Amino acid sequence: MFLLAALSAGTMLAQDITGTWQGTLVLPNKQELRTVIKISKEGAALKAAFYSIDQTPQPIAATIELAGTVVTLTVPAAAVKYEGKLDADAVNIKGTFTQGSGQGIPLNFAKTGPKNPEWPMPDAPARPKPMAADVDPEFDVCSIKPSNPAVQGRGLTVRGREVVSINTSAKFLMTFVYGVHANQIAGAPAWFDSENYDLDGKPAQEGLPNQIQIKIMIRKLLADRFQLKFHREQRELSAYVLQVGKNGPKLPVSQDDPKGLPGLGFRGLGAMNARNATMADLASLFQTAVLDRPVVDQTGLTGHYDFQLNWTPDESQFAGMGIRVPPPPTDKPDAPPDLAIALQEQLGLKLAATKTMVEVLVIDKVEKPSAN
Questions:
Q1: Do residue 203 and residue 266 come from a single domain?
Q2: Is residue 102 over pLDDT 90?
Q3: % of the chain exceeding 90 in pLDDT
């Protein structure tokens, strides 16, 4: 589901829709999510911020357009599209919210004013203290529920100090906690990849877990609740290797605590933000979410970096997030380059396709998750 979006459009409006708009999205499970759009102008262009205030104040990138009376909002990273019609008084938008291939859900917005006061915006939650480094972390409780098929997209995050996932298969979780591509898992039954689950787990130990601790907890969860057992083999597979380019890296060193959680995510398809991230983190994200084969880090870089990467994705990318990428635009000469060129120009890195020996995790035993 979308969280918060920074929006922009260069289309001039026949009507003035600047201001604050709000409406309630009612999901198939009857959950209500209050949504807010704040629209302003910067010169001739529209600027807006989109909020789902019952979820989080954090942003996710989107675009907004107006053609006549039709308002179109898209959130590429979450496969979300909203299309609505502006009324003659420019105070109501009646439309439909769609995510991925799911069924459209009615979502209407009304402009705020004396008769429709603005909802109070939430404050960002206080960040918990880090979990002690010497603990052996595990979940105190963790619910595992089948995902709602109407909800598209996929993700795993920390909310407060709880570890939460949406639309994650057991195979996806295994790729995350063991740092492998889906092609590096063999011998699994069909449901291991096709059936998705939502997780909500509370650590038994106090404090905010770091990425290593999150992986340890989910490894234990897979062994306990899914009865996962496997062994390791070396096999030759098609892969990508991530290397330093001929002119050296262009990676600003992060000033964050290197023991803290890295932040890697997408403002949109082909628009990546990274904070406090290692090259191993980058390779892991590429092979989990973006590319169609394993990615092996051969940069030799061991630091933590802050950077952005912008490229035009092709149809082979982002299948790991359950997203179908549209064909690259042919009418935008200023569109970002493809991934290989963007890596070289923006980060000083090189991505090369090859065949190499990689570790494969061969499933010996796995069962559908035990009851909560």
A1: yes
A2: no
A3: 51
212 CB contacts (<8 Å, ≥6 apart)? none
Contacts of 129 (CB under 8 A, 6+ apart): 206, 207, 208
The pairs formed by 339-344 with CB atoms below 8 angstroms and a separation of 24 or more are 339/270, 339/290, 339/311, 339/313, 341/311, 342/309, 342/310, 342/311, 343/245, 343/309, 343/311, 344/245
User: Taking residues 211-226, what's their average pLDDT?
Assistant: 95
Q: What is the DSSP string of 279-344?
A: HHHHHHHIIIII-SS-EEE-S---S-EEEEEE----TTSSGGGT-PPPPPPSS-TT----HHHHII
Sign of CA dihedral 233, 237, 239, 245: positive
Q: What is the pLDDT of residues 281-314, one digit of tens each?
A: 999 899 988 999 999 999 999 999 999 999 999 9
pLDDT at 13: 37
The sign of the dihedral angle between the CA atoms of 131, 133, 135, 140 is: positive
User: What's the domain range around 39?
Assistant: 4-111
Predicted local confidence at residue 125, as pLDDT = 64
The domain boundary, picked from 93, 111, 129, lies at: 111
**Considering the domain boundaries, does residue 167 fall inside one?**
yes
Q: What is the pLDDT of residue 7?
A: 31
In the block, residue with structure tokens 């190499």: 356
Does residue 195 sit in the same domain as residue 234? yes
Residue 150: pLDDT band (50, 70, 90) is confident
Q: What angle do CA 163, 169, 173 make, to 5 degrees?
A: 50
CATH code, 26: 2.40.128.120
Residue 84, pLDDT above cutoff 90 = yes
Number of domains into which the chain is organized: 2
Q: Is 86 found in the same domain as 168?
A: no
> At residue 99, does pLDDT exceed 70?
yes
* Mean pLDDT (whole number) for 214-239: 96
In a domain, 8, yes or no: yes
Q: Do 111 and 47 form a contact (C-beta atoms < 8 A)? A: no
- CA distances from residue 311 to 5, 66, 223 in whole angstroms, order as listed: 19, 26, 38
Position 41 in a domain: yes
Q: Is the pTM of this model over 0.85?
A: no
Say if 116 falls within a structural domain: no
**How far is residue 55's CA from residue 34's CA, in Å, rounded to a whole number?**
9
